Structures are given as structure tokens and as C-alpha cells.
């Protein structure tokens, strides 16, 4: 089987969408699928503004062009099917004459509403995106199925189409095996990139909260933090089989799947998140203990005190069991197979 993968070009390689594309393509190829990758090119600002006036929604307007339509159509020659990774390109993929499964990393109308809840300027973009989604995701050709990364987005799409909705969450890194002496260490881990304004905004909000409370908990960073006022004093994060720590998801908006939650669990961190992650972990035993929602930096100290009071041997057993269960539940190979099964079901 030859599949056209429509996705973003690789830049840093660390962004969530780039990780998803690279690992899913790898999993498909490991399963014997020939994958051809094509990356639409951003349009000029003038063309993007013109697209907005034509009713093309946010994000899509940056890629809607005759050149990109030709680029994708040419790349599709000889392919049996196409996977459109990221909703930015769904309008381009809708013009193909072969079976397509769009993989929605987010639902634009929902994510814009969540990211900018009180921004009046964002509302027209929300309405335009919602109209686009109702029109596009109810089609059963060429969109023979629609895939999503999160249970929340799955519920949304199921309200638009009653069948052919696929759940394809990202895979999880292999868990770091805990040593026999591992115990809770009062340390907060921050991971991820902060190039995108909403993520920097929520990181800055956390730095202000952290400065307002007395918390004798160190901060370890996997990556680099932008300049903050007040700054967050931190040290580089080092993988440590002797430590059970706390991993923080600082996004205050609920949108898509938070890959860093899986990374934290693979590094034996209890996940504390400002956004609700419960739906994607609900079926895994002990999820309520290891994946929790917080509302303020002071909540971290409360959880740290709770964890410190648990016997180390018990916490080790629970942490190991939960991280292994998550690794089994979230697999790149499984999600790749779900996509292939979606094409197979259509063929039958």
C-alpha cells in the first residue's frame, strides 16, 4: 500500500506535531506501508488575508493556495490513499480523488475558544472554523473516516458524524525503569517548547504564581525557558532512575492531546496539569492518582507533601505499574494500525 502523508515540514523536530508525524510515518513504514511525505508551503500574508475574506478559516488560510493544491495533487499520483496530519491542511486534502483520513490534532473552533476565552477578536474565527468543520467533517468522501488524538475531540467529531471516527493518540516513550532505591524527590519538571504565544502566556502565569508562594521544591527543565518576569530558577532535567518527581503541564487551555504528559510518565513523574487530561487516561487503573488537575502553583506543594508521606516501596510499585500500563495503552504501532484498518474497512 502506498500512502501520501500530508503534514508539516520538520524544523526543530521537537514540536508536538513534528514528533507525531515522524513517529507515525516510522510506524507505518515498519508495517510495510510505503509513505510519501508532502508539506504544504505557507502563503504570503496578502494571500492569507484574501483567504480570510473568502471565508477560509484560521490556520487553513495560511496554506490555501493554487500552488499547494497542485503540489498535493501531483504528490498523490500513484498513491492508494492519503493521511492528512493536522487540520491546517484538511481543505487541501478534501480536493483529492482518493480515500483520505484527516488526523485532527485539535478542533480549531474548540481550541480557539479555549485558548482565547475572553477575546472578542477571536470570535469570528471561531464561527468561521465551526462552519467549516460542520461542512467538511460530515463528508464521507474523500474523508472516509476522521481521526483524532484526544477523547474530547472524538466526542466532538461524533456529534458531526455518527460513524468512522478513529481514536489515534500519540505513542508513549518507553518508561525509565526505576531502581530498587527509587523514592519521591521534591522536584518539578518542565518540558516542552514555548515558541507559541499561548504556551508562553501560561508559563508566565505560572512563574508569577510560583513567586507568590513559598515552595521549597526545585525546578528541573528539559529544554530552555524563555525570559520571564519573575524568572524561574531552574537546573537542567536529568533522567534519574532513583527519582519519582512531579511533571507539570502548564497549558490552561484544553485542546488536543498533551504529549508532555506521556513524557513525564515515562520519566516516572506524577503529572499535575492546569488543563483536564482525565478523559485520555480514564481507562487506565490508578489514573486519578498519577494524572491530576491543579489550579494554582500552591497545589504542587500539597501534592508533594502527600507523595512524601507514602512509603517509597509502595510508590515505586504503583508508579512502575502505571507507567507500564500507559506505555501499553499508547502505542505508535497501535495508532498506525487504526488508520490502516480505517482504509481497510472502507475497501470492504
Structure notes:
The strands form two sheets. This protein has a six-stranded parallel β-sheet with strand order 2-1-3-4-5-6, sandwiched between helices. With 348 residues, the chain is of the alpha/beta class. Helix 4 links the parallel strand 3 and strand 4 (100-104). It is 42% helix and 16% strand. The protein has two domains: 2-171 and 331-347, 3-Layer(aba) Sandwich (Rossmann fold); 183-329, Rossmann fold.
Rounded average pLDDT: 93
CA(first)-CA(last) distance: 15 Å
The H/E string reads EHEHHEHEHHEHEEHEEEHEHHEHHH
CATH architecture of the largest domain: 3-Layer(aba) Sandwich
Provide a short characterization of the protein structure.
The protein is an alpha/beta fold and 348 residues long. It has two domains: 2-171 and 331-347, Rossmann fold; 183-329, Rossmann fold (3-Layer(aba) Sandwich).
Topology:
Elements: E1 2-6, H1 16-30, E2 34-38, H2 45-53, H3 66-75, E3 81-85, H4 90-93, E4 100-104, H5 108-115, H6 123-136, E5 146-148, H7 151-160, E6 165-167, E7 183-191, H8 197-212, E8 218-222, E9 235-236, E10 243-249, H9 259-266, E11 269-273, H10 278-281, H11 287-290, E12 291-293, H12 298-308, H13 312-329, H14 332-347
Parallel strand pairs: 1-2, 1-3, 3-4, 4-5, 5-6, 7-8, 7-10, 8-9, 10-11, 11-12
Output the keywords.
348 residues; Rossmann fold; six-stranded parallel sheet; 2 domains; 12 strands; single chain; 14 helices; alpha/beta
Amino acid at each position: 500500500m502506498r500512502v501520501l502523508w500530508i503534514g508539516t515540514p520538520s524544523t526543530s523536530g521537537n514540536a508536538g506535531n513534528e514528533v507525531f508525524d515522524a513517529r507515525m510515518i516510522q510506524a507505518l513504514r515498519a508495517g510495510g506501508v510505503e509513505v510519501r511525505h508532502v508539506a504544504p508551503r505557507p502563503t504570503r500574508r496578502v494571500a492569507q488575508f484574501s483567504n480570510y475574506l473568502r471565508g477560509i478559516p484560521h490556520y487553513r488560510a495560511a496554506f490555501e493556495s493554487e500552488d499547494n493544491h497542485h503540489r498535493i495533487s501531483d504528490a498523490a499520483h500513484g498513491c492508494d490513499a492519503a493521511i492528512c496530519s493536522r487540520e491546517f491542511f484538511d481543505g487541501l486534502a478534501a480536493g483529492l480523488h482518493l480515500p483520505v483520513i484527516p488526523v485532527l490534532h485539535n478542533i480549531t473552533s474548540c481550541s480557539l475558544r479555549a485558548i482565547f476565552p475572553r477575546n472578542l477578536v477571536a470570535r469570528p474565527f471561531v464561527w468561521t472554523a465551526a462552519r467549516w468543520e460542520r461542512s467538511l467533517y460530515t463528508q464521507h468522501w474523500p474523508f472516509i473516516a476522521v481521526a483524532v488524538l484526544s477523547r474530547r475531540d472524538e466526542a466532538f467529531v461524533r456529534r458531526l458524524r455518527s460513524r468512522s471516527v478513529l481514536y489515534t493518540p500519540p505513542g508513549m516513550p518507553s518508561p525509565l525503569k526505576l531502581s530498587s532505591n527509587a523514592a519521591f524527590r521534591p522536584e518539578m519538571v518542565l518540558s516542552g517548547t514555548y515558541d507559541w504565544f499561548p504556551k508562553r502566556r501560561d508559563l508566565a502565569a505560572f512563574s508569577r504564581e510560583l513567586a507568590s508562594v513559598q515552595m521549597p521544591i526545585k525546578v528541573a527543565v528539559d529544554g530552555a525557558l524563555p525570559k520571564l518576569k519573575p524568572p524561574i530558577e531552574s537546573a537542567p532535567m536529568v533522567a534519574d532512575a532513583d527519582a519519582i518527581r512531579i511533571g507539570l503541564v502548564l497549558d490552561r487551555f484544553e485542546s488536543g492531546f498533551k504529549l508532555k504528559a506521556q513524557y513525564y510518565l515515562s520519566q516516572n513523574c506524577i503529572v499535575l496539569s492546569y488543563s483536564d487530561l482525565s478523559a485520555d487516561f480514564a481507562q487506565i487503573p490508578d489514573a486519578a492518582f498519577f494524572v491530576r488537575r491543579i489550579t494554582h502553583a500552591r497545589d504542587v506543594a500539597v501534592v508533594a507533601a502527600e507523595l512524601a508521606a507514602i512509603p517509597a516501596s509502595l510508590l515505586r510499585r504503583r508508579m512502575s505499574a502505571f507507567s507500564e500500563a500507559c506505555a501499553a495503552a499508547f502505542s505508535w504501532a497501535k495508532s498506525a494500525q487504526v488508520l490502516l484498518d480505517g482504509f481497510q474497512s472502507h475497501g470492504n
